[in-house]
Amino acid sequence: MNAEKIPNIIITRLPVYLRALQRMADNGLKTTSSQEMGDRVGISAAQIRKDISQFGEFGKQGTGYSIDYLIDKLREILKVDRMWDVIIVGAGDMGHALARYQGFANRGFNVVMIFDNDKNKIGQKIGDFTIEDTANLVERVKAADIKIAMLTLPASVAQGITDKLVEAGVRAILNYAPISLSVPENVKVQHIDPATHLQRMTYYL
């Protein structure tokens, strides 16, 4: 299957389905329907069926979906049926929070390094991590063959660090900096700007 042919909006919904299914499994449920999933995630049953059918037929008419089987299939589709090593660049408040967050490991991600360019921070510890110098970023990331990075940097330095990450072979960047990043076509960037999300919500208040 050509991943580029699946609309991005469908890919963004799959982790939502996966999270709901995982909660059902944790509660001891074995089967579910698109209607039940829809009630849990606020998406229509028809849309869920359409999204999942893009990748094959995983349910049976009248019996619905096996939760464990669908979890396995969605993890496979999203490529989180393995562990991905991830680095964090920026050891400020957000970097500290992400480095300490316990929710990555059971969803396919393993934070392995954290970098900063502040001489006062380099060498300090965050949990089990020692903050490393961004001057060594390209060499360290290349050697470890890391493909995913999270940026928690000021906007003024984010593009320069992004260029280093691309040089090091990183292919996916989760960007918390309030700036749009310029990257080659083969590099995926997901922007997480809390202020932007808040502004979307205040429209409805």
Question: Layout of helices and strands, plus pairs?
Answer:
Layout (H helix, E strand, L loop, with lengths): L7 H19 L4 E2 L1 H8 L3 H9 L5 E2 L3 E3 H11 L6 E6 L3 H8 L8 E8 L8 E2 L2 E2 L1 E2 L3 H8 L3 E4 L3 H14 L3 E4 L12 E4 L2 H9 L3
Parallel strand pairs: 4-5, 4-9, 5-8, 9-10, 10-11
Antiparallel strand pairs: 1-3, 2-3, 6-7
**Helix/strand order, N-terminal first:** HEHHEEHEHEEEEHEHEEH
Ends: how far apart?
A: 42 Å
Shape: elongated
How many helix segments?
8
CATH architect. name of the largest domain: 3-Layer(aba) Sandwich
Secondary-structure-derived class: alpha/beta
Widest sheet, order of strands: 8-5-4-9-10-11
Unreliable residue runs: none
- Counting structural domains, the number is 2
The CATH fourth-level homologous superfamily of the largest domain = NAD(P)-binding Rossmann-like Domain
The average pLDDT value, as a whole number, equals 92
CATH fold-level name of the largest domain: Rossmann fold
Radius of gyration in whole Å, from Cα? 19 Å
Helicity, in percent?
40-55%
The total of beta strands comes to 11
Broad CATH class of the largest domain: Alpha Beta
- How much strand? 15-25%
Tell me about the largest β-sheet. 6 strands, parallel
Protein model, in words:
- It is a single chain.
- The chain folds into two domains: 3-77, Arc Repressor Mutant, subunit A (Orthogonal Bundle), CATH 1.10.10; 84-197, Rossmann fold, CATH 3.40.50.720.
- It has eight helices and eleven strands.
- Helix 2 (34-41) crosses helix 3 (45-53) and helix 6 (137-144) packs across helix 7.
- By secondary structure, it is α/β, with parallel strands linked by helices.
- The protein is elongated.
